[in-house]
Amino acid sequence: MNTMAEAIDKTTGAMSASELAGGIHSRATVGDFTVADPRMSCRDVDVWYGSKQAIKGVSLDIAQNEVLSMIGPSGCGKSTFLRCLNRMNDTIDGCRVTGSIRLDGQDIYDRSLDPVPLRARVGMVFQKPNPFPKSIYENVAYGPRIHGLTNNRTELDALVESSLRKAGLWEEVKDRLDQPGTGLSGGQQQRLCIARTIAVSPEVILMDEPCSALDPIATAIVEELIDELRANYSIAIVTHSMQQAARVSQRTAYFHLGDLIEVGETNDIFTNPRHKLTEDYITGRFG
Amino acid sequence: MNAWTLTLFLLAVMAAAYHLGRKRAISGAGGIDRIKTLHSLPLYHGLYAALWAGIPALLLLGLWSGFQDQIITALVTASLPPESLDGLSEGRVGLLINDIRNLATGNIVSSTLTPGIQAAADQYGRLQQISSWTKWLLVLTVALGGMGLALSHTEPGMRARNRVERIVKIIMIVFSSIAILTTLGILLSVLFESLRFFHAISPLEFFLGTSWSPQIALRADQVGASGEFGAVPLFTGTLLVSAIAMLVAVPIGLMAAIYLSEYASRGVRAFAKPVIEVLAGIPTVVYGFFAALTVAPLIRELGTSVGLEVASESALAAGLVMGVMIIPFVSSLSDDVINAVPQSMRDGSYALGATQSETIRRVIVPAALPGIVGGILLAVSRAIGETMIVVMAAGLAANLTANPLDSVTTVTVQIVTLLTGDQEFDSAKTLAAFALGLTLFMATLTLNVVALTIVRKYREQYD
Ligand SMILES: Nc1ncnc2c1ncn2[C@@H]1O[C@H](COP(=O)(O)OP(=O)(O)OP(=O)(O)O)[C@@H](O)[C@H]1O
Ligand SMILES: [Mg+2]
Is B450 left (phi over 0), alpha (psi -120 to 50) or beta? Predict the structure, then answer.
C-alpha cells in the first residue's frame, strides 16, 4: 500500500490553490481522479434516467490490482455509476449514458462493441445474493458453459473447484456440489455469486454493497476475500459502511447527488477530508 | 304484502337498530368526547343491535316462507271430506290439490268445479291470508324484540366488537359451507348413480372394454341394441383430441408468454396481452361451429387434395380449435410465472455475459418450469373437460383409433348424447353418463390438485 506521504504528494499536485483554501462548492472533483496505469478510465460521464440526470460529469480511473470504494448518501448515484462500467444500464428502459468509459483503452460504449462479452470481462456482484435456482456446481459452471471456456468435463470440474476455492467456499460445499445454491446461507450464497463471477475470469469485478445482506462474520470473510482477489483483479465496490471502505479499499470516491465530490487515497479521505461535504458525510453529519 | 315488502321493513328496522345502538353506546359513555371509555367503537354497538334485529327475524321469515305452503296444503287436505279422496291414487290427489291452489289464486282449473273443491279453495285462501298476517306480525315482533334485547344490554363495557366479529365469522362459515356442501352433494349423487351403473355393468367391462354402443334393447327381440359399455374408445378419443389441443396450445402459448414477458416493449405488451386474453372470452359454442363449419371442411379438402382419407368430422379439427381456445390459459399462466422470476436472476445472468436468449433458456425457463408445468396441467384438465367443440366437431362414432384424421368421440360428447332427449332415469344407458362423469371428474380433479400443488410450491420458492 502507498504511504500517506506519497498520497498527499500526488493529490496536492492535482489541486488548485483556491480549492485548497476551503469552502469549495464547485462541481469539480477534489483530489486526483487519475491513476498512472488505469484499467478502466471514465471521463465526463453523464447518466440520465429519462429526463432525470443521475450522474453529472464524473471522471474516475480504476487501477490494476486496486480496490476502489465508492461511498455517498443513498440515491447519490453509486449503483448507477457502477452499472455503467459493464453496461448493465442497457437493460433499463430509458437509461442514457454519455461521455467515455474505457476498458484497457477501448471505449466500451463504442457502437461496434458488443456488451455481452464485455460483461464477461467486467463482472458484477449484487447487493442481494442471487444464485440461480440450480445446483452449486451449475451455478459456478454457468458462465464457463455459455462462454465455452472449457473443453471437457474434467476441465470444467477443475475450473469450478478453483473458482470456489478462490471464493473461500470450497471446503464448505465440496461434498454437496449437486445441491441447490439457493439452499446455502446468505454469506455462502454471496461467496457463491463471487465464485460464479470469478469463474469467467473477468478483469474487473464490480460489487454493489456485497455485504449489506450479511452478518458481521460473513462480512469479515467476504472482506478478506476481496483483499485476496485484489492480487488478480481490479475491484470497484459500493458500500454504505465507512469502516468497510477503510478496511478493504486503497482509494475511495465520495459521491453526492450525482457528482463525484472527492476522490483520493482511502487513508486521506477518512483522516483528512478536504471537501466540506465529504467531511460532513464521514463524520456522520448526514447520509 | 309479499315477502319483499317485509324484507324492506326488516331492513328499516335494522337501520333503526343500528342508529339506536350507536346512540345508546355514545350516551352510555357520556358523550361523543368520551367514547374512548367504550370497549368497542359505537359503530360496533350499532352493528350489534342491527344484527340482533335482523338475523333472528330473517331466519324466521325464511323458515315460514319455506314451510307455509306445505302446512296449509296439509291442513286443507285434512279438511277435505274423506269420501272425495276415496279411491284416488296419490297422483290424483296431487292434481286435486293443485286445482284447489289454482282456484284460490284465480288461475285456470283443469277439472270441473264441485262445491267441495270450491270450499277447500276458499279455506286455502283464508289460511293463506292468516298465515301472511301472522308472518308479518311475528317477524316484526321478533325483529323489534331482538333490537330491544340488544339495546337492553348495550353498556360501555360490552364487548360489542368481539361479538359482531364472531357473528360475521359464523355467517362467513355458513356461506362457505354452502359452497363446499354443494360440491360434495354433486359428487355424492354422481357417485351413487355410478355405483348403480356398476351394479348393472361390471367396472371391468367399462374401463377395459373396447366397444361402446350404449343402446339398450327396449324389447327382447330388438336387433342391434345389445348395449355395450366399453369406454376405452371414449378415453382414447378424449386423449387424442386433448393431445392435439396441447400440441397446438403449449408451444404457441409458451412462446407468446416468453415474447410478451421478455422481449415485447411495454406498448406491445399492453396491446397484445388483452388481445390474447380475448380468445379466452369467446364462447365455446362459437369455437364449436367454427371448428365444424370452417376448420373441418378445410382439413378435409386439404386432406383429399393430397390423397388422404379424412372424415368430415375429425379429431384434428376439434383438437386444433380446442388448442386455439386453450392458448390464453397457457400463455397467461406462463406469463405470470415468468414474471415472478425475480429480476435479480436476469441481472445475475446478464452480468456473467449471457445473452438474452441464453438467459431465457438457461435461467428463466428452468426457474419458471414448475409453474409452467402446473399451468399446462390446468390447461389439460380444461381440455379433457371441454364439451361444446367436440360435440360439434369431433363426431359421435366411438372409433378406437389413433388417427387424427378419423372421427372420434369423447367422454363429454357421450355424456351429452346419453342425456339429451327423453330418458329413462334408471336405465343403464342413462346411468352410464354418471359413470363417465365420475371418471372425468376424478381425472380433472387429480390434474388440478397436482397442478395447484406444483404452482404453490413454486410460488413459495420466491416469496
Ligand atoms: N431504474 C431507474 N429509473 C429511474 N430512476 C432511477 C433508476 N435507478 C435509479 N434511479 C435514480 O437515480 C438516482 C441514483 O440512484 P442509485 O440507485 O444509483 O443510487 P445509489 O447511490 O446506489 O443509492 P443507494 O445507496 O440507496 O443504493 C436516484 O435518484 C434514483 O432515484
Ligand atoms: Mg445502490
Answer: alpha
CA distances from A53 to A73, B319, B363 (A): 16, 55, 33
Give yes or no for A235 touching B (CB within 8 A). no
Containing structural domain, residue A266: 2-127+204-282
Q: B337-369 pLDDT, tens per residue?
A: 898 889 999 999 999 999 999 999 999 998 888
Q: How is residue A86 written as a grid cell?
A: 459493464
Residues in A touching B345 (Cβ below 8 Å): 130, 132-133
Per-residue pLDDT, B463: 54
Cα separation, A123 vs A86, in Å, equals 7
Spell out the domain ranges in chain B. Answer: 3-158, 228-462
For residue A57, tell me if it sits in a domain.
Answer: yes
Please answer whether residues A27 and A57 qualify as being in contact, where contact means their C-beta atoms are separated by less than 8 angstroms: yes
Q: Residue holding cell 435461467?
A: B363
What are the C-alpha distances in Å from A54 to residues A28, A50, A76, B358? 16, 10, 7, 31
Helix (H) or strand (E) holding B47: helix B42-79
Residue A156 lies in a domain: no
Q: Can you give the pLDDT at residue B38? A: 83
pLDDT at A21: 38
Cell of B238: 378424449
Residue to substitute in A56, A70, A79 for testing ligand 1 pocket (most ligand atoms within 8 angstroms of CB):
A79
Give every residue of chain B whose pLDDT is below 70, as ranges.
1, 83-88, 110-113, 216-226, 423-426, 459-463
Q: Which atom of ligand 1 is nearest to the CA of A255?
A: 21
B108 Cβ partners below 8 Å, 6+ apart? B102
What is the rounded CA–CA span in Å between residue B359 and residue B399? 46
The set of cell numbers assigned to B138 is 311475528
For residue A88, list chain B residues with Cβ-Cβ distance below 8 A: 347, 350-351
User: Minimal Cα–Cα distance from B247 to chain A, Å?
Assistant: 28
For residue A217, being part of any structural domain is answered with yes
Q: Do B347 and A130 touch (CB under 8 A)?
A: yes
What residue type is assigned to position A19 of the chain? E
- Residue A55 Cβ contacting ligand 1 at under 6 Å: no
Q: Tell me the DSSP string of B183-206.
A: HHHHHHHHHHHHHHHHHHS-HHHH
Question: What confidence score (pLDDT) does residue A80 get?
Answer: 93
Shortest-distance ligand to the CA of residue A77: 1
Interface contact A284, partner B, CB < 8 A: no
* Cell, residue B435: 359413470
What is the grid cell recorded at A283? 463524520
Q: Is the CB of B367 less than 8 angstroms away from the CB of A119?
A: no
Q: What share of chain B is helix, strand, coil (3-state, %, to 5)?
A: 80, 0, 20
CATH number of the structural domain spanning residue A60: 3.40.50.300
Beta-ladder partners of B153: none
Dump the DSSP string for A175-194: T-TTSBGGGS-HHHHHHHHH
Burial B393-403 (b: 16+ CB within 10 A, else e): bbbeebbbbeb
Q: Does A196 touch chain B (CB under 8 A)?
A: yes
Alpha-carbon distance of B47 to B50, in angstroms, equals 5
The candidate with the shortest Cα–Cα distance to B147, out of B61, B53, B54, is B53
- As for how many domains chain A has, the answer is 1
Cα of A95 vs centre of ligand 2, distance in Å, is: 15
Alpha-carbon distance of B51 to B47, in angstroms, equals: 6
> What are the per-10-residue average pLDDT scores of chain A (287 residues)?
43 41 52 85 93 92 93 92 92 89 92 90 92 93 92 94 90 92 90 93 92 85 90 93 92 92 91 88 73
CATH placement of domain B228-462: 1.10.3720.10
Q: Would you say residue A54 lies in a domain?
A: yes
- A130 with B344: Cβ contact below 8 A: yes
Task: Let me know: does B49 contact B154? Beta carbons within 8 Å.
Answer: yes
